Amino acid sequence: MFAGWDIHEKLSAIGRSSISTMPYVPHWPTVPDWSPMLPLLFWLPLGLLMAIGVAPRVVGALLVLTMTVILLGDQRTYSNHLYFLILLVFLLSFVPSSRRQTAVRSWPVTLLKCQGSVLYGFGALSKVTPMYLTGWMLAGTVDRRWWGWIPEWSESPLIFAGIALLTIVVEAWLAAALWSPRFRRAAVVTGLTLHAGCVLLLRDVKIDLIVFGLSSVSLYPLFFLSPAHEISTPGLRPGRILNTDPAATAI
Amino acid sequence: MRKTFIFLYLLIQIAVPTILLFFPDRPTRFGWQMFSGSRLPFFSRLFTDGRRVPVSLQEVQLVVGVVRSELDYERYVPPILCKREPFAGAILSEHGPRVRRWPCR
What we know:
The complex is a heterodimer of chains A (251) and B (105).
Chain A: H1 2-16, H2 37-52, H3 56-73, H4 80-92, E1 103-105, H5 106-125, H6 130-133, H7 136-141, H8 157-177, H9 184-201, H10 207-217, E2 226-233, E3 236-243
Antiparallel strand pairs in A: 1-3, 2-3
Helix pairs in contact in A: 1-2, 1-10, 2-3, 3-4, 4-5, 4-10, 5-8, 8-9, 9-10
Chain B: H1 2-20, E1 42-47, E2 52-54, H2 57-64, H3 73-84, E3 88-95, E4 98-103
Antiparallel strand pairs in B: 1-2, 1-3, 3-4
């Protein structure tokens, strides 16, 4: 719903702009007359159906298709959180979801967890540049209203350079620590702080950072699922499964 | 089949961002390069009488609609900035040490 709202806002802004289309490459097929209501009309009901487990593969395919059309239709409708959501929905459509089932297949869950690590890992690696490490990017994006109560020295370039380095370390650590039983809980707290910090401290925060934070954090519970032995239930092919309910080990 | 799918999925998800790390401009799409840089240049108009007037971020936002770090601004924005100011002779775009000039026709 948030993603649909975000794209609705973007499509409305694109509709008011001087450039009708910004294709990735010349003559790229674009949909010139985007209806800003389209994502809201499609994604909200499809997302709800997906959440309650109604035909996850069909609904997932429809969601992935409609979101990919928006993602690739114009340079301005690309966003990392939309791309991330597409991948999550794609993988989720392989996870059988029903209230009667207390176990899920392990491989889509493992891929979802890997996706989270890929996100944080490359987020950290891509920031290892002289430009980012100087703190210049952060200094330009932090909402100055939050710094009013902090002493003036805190606006020194050295402080922003320190925070820039810290964000890289935190993202790199999250990529690995979520897999470790020892550090998992600390990683969850750190991740929640990181995403909340982005939403609260960055300037011109729109709905996209909220979507990004929610979709990233939504993967955290998966790291707490416990692996279990193979079972065969109607609708579930035999294979390694993950328990979502401790009682299911008795099956 | 399942193993191939898992292998291909992970290969794509690791290989694509890895290759994109070697591209000179940051951020790029599909590389999880959030907040790693900005490709938004500093635009200014050059008038025929020699004046140089900076283009505000608000005007760029008005032209583009959605300001994002990885947009291909230099391909799309200069012609529109020319159209919006008939007396402009050229548009200058500065991005770090790189300065480019776009003549208005």
